[in-house]
């Protein structure tokens, strides 16, 4: 496993996602301040794959420089506010999710339909509510 390659690819995915979030933020802002531009920008952005965010920004720069600069500014601000918390949160979430998946797997592996039926059919006087030996 090449850790450096994984780091590069992960950083690219995060960068692309932050670009997508910046676009959503700017569309929301424009909806309040300039609805016609918001409509145009939403339609323009809906046809793009944000897995290639840098290509999107280059093409947006050709169409509307102000919006492209605004996206870059918002993306940078998001990165500064979010990335500080990301590594510990990702590690904690992965650990918690893995533990839950392992628990579910262990339950499936150890589950026996015969055992479950035997337990349901078994008589336990100490648990029987209708036991008249009180």
Word description of this protein:
The chain has 134 residues and is mainly α. 79% of the residues lie in helices and 0% in strands. It has 6 helices and no strands. Helix 1 (3-33) runs antiparallel to helix 2 (35-46), helix 1 packs across helix 4 and helix 3 (53-63) packs antiparallel against helix 4. The protein is elongated. The protein starts with a helix and ends in a 13-residue tail after the last helix. The relative contact order is 0.08. The model has no long low-confidence stretch (mean pLDDT 86). Homodimer. Interacts with the exposed C-terminal peptide of RbcL via its central cleft, contacts a second RbcL monomer via its peripheral polar surface. One of its GO terms (biological process) is photosynthesis. One of its GO terms (cellular component) is cytoplasm. InterPro entries: Chaperonin_RbcX_sf (IPR038052), Chaperonin_RcbX (IPR003435), RbcX (IPR046381). Residues 50-77 form a coiled coil.
Write a brief caption for the model.
By secondary structure, the protein is mostly helical. 79% of the residues lie in helices and 0% in strands. It has six helices and no strands.
Number of helices: 6
State the major sheet: none
Provide the β-strand percentage band: under 5%
Order of helices and strands: HHHHHH
First-residue to last-residue Cα separation: 66 Å
Q: What integer value in Å does the Rg equal?
A: 27 Å
Q: Could you say which overall geometry the principal axes of the C-alpha atoms support?
A: elongated
Q: Low-confidence parts, pLDDT < 50 over ≥5 residues?
A: none
